[in-house]
Structures are given as structure tokens and as C-alpha cells.
Amino acid sequence: MATTNFHVTGGSSAADTNGGGPSLGTNDAAVDSPAAVTAVHDGSGVHTLTDDGVDGFSNTSVDDFITWDTGGTPEAAIVTSLTSDDIIVVGRPGSSVAFTNLTSVAVRVGGAFATVKHAMELIDSTFVNAAGDVPKVNIKNDGTYSEGATTLLAGTMSVPVIYSGYTSSISDLDDQGRNSTGFINTTNFPAITFTGSLTPAAFVAIQNLKITGALSAYLILSATVDNFSVVNCEITNTQNNASAGAVRADNQIRLIGSDFYCSGAAHAIVVDLDTSAGISDCRFRGTSSSALLQLNTGEVHRSVFWGDGGTPTAILLFSAIPSALPNTMSQNTFYSVGACIQTPNSAPIRSMFLSHNHATDSTKWIENLYSATANLVVYESYNRLRDITTPRTGVVSIEQGEILTDTGGIETDYEDAANGDFHLIAAAPGYGKGLHGQDIGANQHVVPSGGGGAGGRGYPRGAL
Rounded distance, CA 128 to CA 346, Å? Predict the structure, then answer.
């Protein structure tokens, strides 16, 4: 996918007064920075900039972004054409509103920004090149990023905004995946500490980032923003407070290949969403008496829910407001929680489909809290349960292929559950026992390409 590239780096010449890219100078400086430029508006939403010196734009290219200082506030523009080495024509992203005519104004062409906050509060879907390529802010793992409260600007359905970490070349972390024990591999991820909440925006995706903070609030927080995505990130709130959480957002949220963790003795629901969520290949972990995930409706696949024995609920699947949409959950692993899935004290108006999930060492598998007579209808296929005290409450279950074999404790199912490795050992009852020969649960083994069957653990895939 072609993108309009911007940069945030720790380079010694990176600065929030730079244009942000795509061209970069030495140590991520602006490629041109004439100090005395005359800017004249031509009446059609563009400005002609003329360097009052000589050849001030000799390194400038079409589609470079620039900033100039209008009374102390850097404003952004994009180079639309070059007349000569000392004359360029620029337009303001997404707007025909003119800049004020200026003389002797300083201009910076390209060069990286120095802070993530500046990029996030500047760039939206209008910051595109002449081809209209999606804006992508590339955050390099060569600096220390500590940001206060930050508010993202929105993309659109067809032009989302992407914030993506990299180490030496753009997109080089996209396929890094997870390590052999199942944790996300954050080696070389840019680390961002937030000292205030990040407010998400619609049609924005964050990718390949390690985000931490110690906030008595959610690190990513909005009860109203829809269509926000987290891809291949680790998000950890270390605060010991009942209001501390990882992500709070609204509808159509996409969480893909990411880990979410609250490590304080007290915390809120780790991830709190609303309707039509899409979750795949993630890991949720908490340490206190709050749920790991809450959502009204959605799909949850190939994800790990890791409690500590005191975690009351892995998935508080429905909010108190019923929805007519069904919920589907497949190939998830639940360990050491109270209830793996809990539904609210309201009359069920939807059914649920659960397939190839692995639940052990927990109090309840499915708990319907509705106190009247209506039962929740659940369609189940090839789920594996062990040491579940009360498998189902208030549920009518239509089942096939359920695996209840109990050969012992955690050591007879997992590689190292105590340390978070939920791959199944070869002798585990759920190993290779899925409908099509796959493992039950989130963590899959891969048979070596030479064949020979499932003779060992092999290599991990899925929500590892």
C-alpha cells in the first residue's frame, strides 16, 4: 500500500517546527530551511513562496510538507509545484483557506518531528500527497518518547491515518509477531510513555508500539469514538487504582495481535468496548477483581485471557443494554478466572456461538446472570473444559465434540501456564483434537513441513 509518509524520530535535528517529511536531511533535519521567504497568496487557495536569498529550495521536492511560522504558530502546507530552486507553490492540506501574505518568514521543508504528540495533534486524513495516498506517521525506535494528554485527529473510511513504529526502515516491524512463549515480541518497538490519556479518533490505527503509563484512568480513553484500531501493540497501565485501564472506546473497534495488561493490584476493566468489536490474536491480563474484557457485541478469536485466580471474569460479553446482534468466540484460551464468559441480568435476546475454546482452572465456563426463567441459548463446538467448578448457569447448550478429559492439572495441558505459555503439550487432551485437526484454544502448534504428524510442539502461530 502506497502511503504519504511522515516521520517522528529521536534524531538530533528532529523538531516539531519541521514539516514532518517525507524528505529527511542529516540527523532528520529539514532538507531546506530558508530564513527569509516572501509568501504571496494567488487567490486560488495556494501560496507562491519565494526565497529572498538564493536557491533556498534546491533540495525541495513536490509533495514535501513544510511549516512556516505565522506569529509563533507553525502552520503546515504541502509543496504542489516548483518553479525554480528559489520559488515553490504550496497549498494547505484539505483547505483552500489562504495563509496570510508574509515577508521574511522562516520555512522548513521536510525533516522529522520530535514528539509523537505533535504529529498526532496535527495530521488528519487531509495530509496526503498528490496521489491521495493514506497518511502514515512512522515513529522510529531511536528516541525517548514521553507524551502528555494527546488527542488524535480523525481519518476517514477510505483515508485512515496510521501511526506505525519501525526500527531502521519503514514497516520493518510489521511481521515481527510473537515470541516462542506467546508474548508479543516488542524488541525494537518504539516505547511511548503517556502521562495523560490518549484520546483516540475514528479511522485511526496504531501499530508496532509499546505504550505504557501509570494513570488513574484509561491509557487510551473515549466512551464515544468508533472505528479505532490497535495492531501489534503492547499496552500496559501500571497504576494501582480502581480507575486504571488499558483501552476504553466505543463501537467497531478492532484489536489485532496486541497485548493488554493492567499490573496494579487494583484496576478497572482492562479493555472496555461497546458494540460490533472485532478482536483477533490478542492477550488480556489483569491482577485484580475486574474483568479482562467487556463488550456488548462482537467477535473474539484466537485470544488469551489470563487471570490470576482473583480475576472475576474473562469476558463480560454483554453490557447491560441488550443488542440483537449475536456473539461469536472461537479458539480462545481462558485460564484462572472466575467466569470465562458472563452475561448480564437481563432477558437474553440473542444466541451465542462458541467454538474450539480452551477453558481450565476456573470457576465457571458460561454464567448467565439473568435471575428470571429465560435461558441463554449457546451453540458449542469442540470446546475443551477442565477443572471448571460450575460449567454453565442459566444456559441451554447445544453441543458437539466437547472434550472433558482430565489427566491432571496445568502441567498436563500447557507448556508453562504459570509464566504465560499456553501452548498445549503434545499429550494434552486438546492437542490436535479440533474438528480439522487443529489444537483447541488460542495457541497452535505447526507441524514441520517435512510431515510426519504432530510429533511435538513445533512452532507457534495464531494468538500465541
Answer: 48
